[in-house]
Amino acid sequence: MSEQSVTTEQATSTDHETGGISIGQIGLYATLAGLVGFYLIPIESGLVTSIKTSAGLDNTMPFLPPTTGSWITFEKWQVAFDFLAPGMVNSMLFTIPSTILCAILGSMAAYGLTLVDWRGQIAVLSLFIAGIFVPYQAVIVPLFQFWSQYMQLGTRLSFLWGLPLLEPHYATILELIITHTAYGIPIVTLLFRSQYKTMSEEMIEAARLDGASIWRVYQRIVLPLSIPMFAVVFIFQFTQIWNEFLFSLTIIGSTNDPAASATLILSGLGQSLEGTDYPLRMAGAFITALPTLLVYVLFADKFAEGVQT
């Protein structure tokens, strides 16, 4: 019997001994199981904490469910929702318009910087790239001074507040829409540009030879092909803006302001002189995260398609 045959028989017998699973596969499955536990245990701990009473929180480990029925309560979820509901409405009012504006303006800017040739294009693109690296902390003081001292939208738009459905705190929400849109356009432009660079130049050139204008090419060719990337941008920007805290704190300033966002209200939820109500904070955190989870579920297919482009 040759040496190769002996080796093959030994490998076969080893596979039979381990039930057809190699040592490498066992290690892979163990690693995957460890990663699943690593990411799910904090979520599980937060969920079980959110349904505990104060006695249940004091007498059980954070990741263990309550051991008796008297330690279980869903009242914290109701209280958290009542506190967060106005803030979630405000967050929707500036997150959705900001996301849509970022996507539309970023797509148009990427089209002009990628598929249209004009003098100074590289210099303008460099400014967009530089805008990505401007840290939030570097702009909060100028941002606060710009809106509070120079623009003062609440005063300038005071003639609107007598109209139905319009409230004075909408001026603050408008400030947040403009701020998030301006800060999000650079990264969105780069995302769209990465897709537009892969588009067929022959197709674009053929449309131009047929007499299509720059706007017509964008409207009839580029825009329909950009739908998957719009889904990527929508998920990315919605998550970024919804979870953002620093701009809300700078422009709004207080959790008692009628324009307070969900994240701003969440930062003070459960705080009192007696200490921190962790079940209430956990319930509030999960309620605040629901819109981003819903966006991922609704746009998952388009997101996967856009990532592949």
How would you sum up this structure, described in words?
The chain has helices spanning 3-17, 23-50, 54-59, 75-114, 121-132, 140-151, 153-156, 170-196, 201-209, 214-225, 227-243, 246-251, 262-268, 278-298, 300-308, and strands at 271-272, 275-276. It is mainly α and 309 residues long. It folds into 2 domains: 3-71, no CATH class; 76-308, Orthogonal Bundle (MetI-like fold). Strands 1-2 form a two-stranded antiparallel ribbon. Helix 2 crosses helix 14, helix 4 packs parallel to helix 14 and helix 5 (121-132) packs across helix 8. It is flat, with a radius of gyration of 27 Å. The relative contact order is 0.13.
Describe this structure in a few short sentences:
InterPro entries: MetI-like, MetI-like_sf. The chain is 73% helix and 1% strand.
Shape: flat
Assign the CATH architecture of the largest domain: Orthogonal Bundle
Given the helix and strand composition, which structural class is it? Answer: mainly alpha
Q: What is the H level of CATH, i.e. the homologous superfamily of the largest domain?
A: MetI-like
Read across the widest sheet, the strand sequence of neighbours is 1-2
SS field, number of helical segments:
15
CATH hierarchy class name of the largest domain: Mainly Alpha
What is the domain tally?
Answer: 2
Work out the helicity level. Answer: over 70%
In percent terms, what proportion of residues is strand? under 5%
Q: Gap between N and C termini, in Å?
A: 54 Å
Biggest sheet architecture: 2 strands, antiparallel
**Order of helical and strand elements:** HHHHHHHHHHHHHEEHH
Radius of gyration: 27 Å
Rounded mean pLDDT is 87
Here the CATH topology of the largest domain equals MetI-like fold
Low-confidence stretches: 1-18
Instruction: Give the strand tally.
Output: 2
Oligomer: single chain
Pfam families: BPD_transp_1
Subcellular location: Cell membrane; Membrane
Transmembrane segments: 21-41, 92-113, 125-148, 168-192, 221-239, 278-299
Family: Belongs to the binding-protein-dependent transport system permease family.
